[in-house]
């Protein structure tokens, strides 16, 4: 099962029906002969009673893809939130026709009139496919990819001319035409008057360069590296030899030799590397020491009085 469908799409909408879901939108493709029956099934069985819109898309090489967007308010028969369903079918360019959907959703009448006017898709059984938006004298269906935009052919579009180029002359190079704009040499006021676009000559294989000409560029493989890694690179060439110093002429006093600096002593193995002595600051002057005070003298001991005698 796909999305919120109760069964497989082919079991609900008939043979040939396929379904897919993306961004909370369930899309079901049905054959053209099952178009009206699919709308009825979506309304009665899936609860899609709200008709939103109907339109078409011109798919080059495929045909016109007609789409109808219907909604189940309240989730249909199973309850829940809003569920959206996009029914699609494809009709060919030869006879684009479908049965009308007005019998299932009367609000589709306005949308089918617009689709018929813009794409040329006929809806059989419609009460009246009268023009809706375009004037009665308008010819063609403007939303088809093969509809000729006469205004684009009569006047050059911005970007079709080079700056400073005259509007009367043709463009310097043939550009790719957008949908609806034919070749001005095949349709329009300049039909058959413009020269055909010159064919681009085929590029011949390069041969060996003649003497005095720039050599052909040689492709290098991954193993060979780039041109800057070859032997011809300036930094790959051997350095030029330095000229030998010239001897001074005879009679020129020789310059005194420069004094040799004393060689540093090799430290003993295992000894730590000598450190640079840090600059020593002069010691701060010490305050003069105070003279110690003399210790107090102890009193002399008194002699005990003699026995039988007078006290002293």
From TrEMBL:
Biased composition (Pro residues): 241-303
Region annotation Disordered: where it falls in the sequence: 158-312
Residues of the NADH:ubiquinone oxidoreductase 30kDa subunit domain: 28-152
Gene Ontology molecular function, alphabetical: NADH dehydrogenase (ubiquinone) activity
The organism's place on the tree of life at top rank: Bacteria
Biased composition (Low complexity): 200-213
Gene3D superfamilies: NADH:ubiquinone oxidoreductase, 30kDa subunit
Extent of Basic and acidic residues compositional bias: 162-171
Entry keywords, A to Z: Ubiquinone
Family: Belongs to the complex I 30 kDa subunit family.
Name of the protein in question: NADH:ubiquinone oxidoreductase subunit (Chain C)
Lineage of origin: Bacteria, Bacillati, Actinomycetota, Actinomycetes, Kitasatosporales
